[in-house]
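Lab notebook, bench 4. The sequencing result for the construct came back, and we need a structural model before the next group meeting so we can plan mutations. Quick request posted to the team channel:

Model the 3D structure of this chain.
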Amino acid sequence: MTSRPFPLRIGLTGGIGSGKSTVAQMLHARGAAIIDADAIARSVTAPNGAAMPAIAQTFGEDFITTDGALDRERMRAHVFKEPSAKQALEAIIHPLVTQETQRQAQAAIDQGFRTLVFDVPLLVESGTRWRTQVDRVLVVDCAETTQIERVVARNGLSRETIQNIISAQASRAQKLAAADWVIHNEKLTLQTLRDQVAQLPISTT
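Done. Here's the predicted structure in token form:
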């Protein structure tokens, strides 16, 4: 019995409003396993999440909502004022995210998936943490003005709020510099975007 080829691991990233989640869905439709690091991070800080006891112990009960979840707004404000708090929070969350990511990846491998896609919004910002875990980085790119227009239409956020989110992320140039593959999702129809995803050299069978 021949051994199964080791799966291709793709790190998928892109700025808010770039269309990254849509590309992830299209990759899934092609037969890739999608492992959503952001969803995992949210789950460990949800009510009774795995990170909550350590967060309560480190930061205090003021940072816990009445239903037992992380008070994201309060923590966001605290991290902004106290940069060291970000490191303390990441020291709690990152190992748990890594553990669950590895569990989901192994489950996908056991099920026979040939391509694993790690959906990581802050892949570039994480430095080598994620880059060393994937074989290729796929960046979904578009102009900043397009990002703002899409998020305003989708979420109804103010332009100032969206601009602040974009400014807190790696720049477009930094993302492109980190990319092995790029999909320029600018004024594309869904079918054209799907065609670009179909051209990626991945194996799903």
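The first strand starts at residue 8 and ends at 13.
Will bring this to the meeting.
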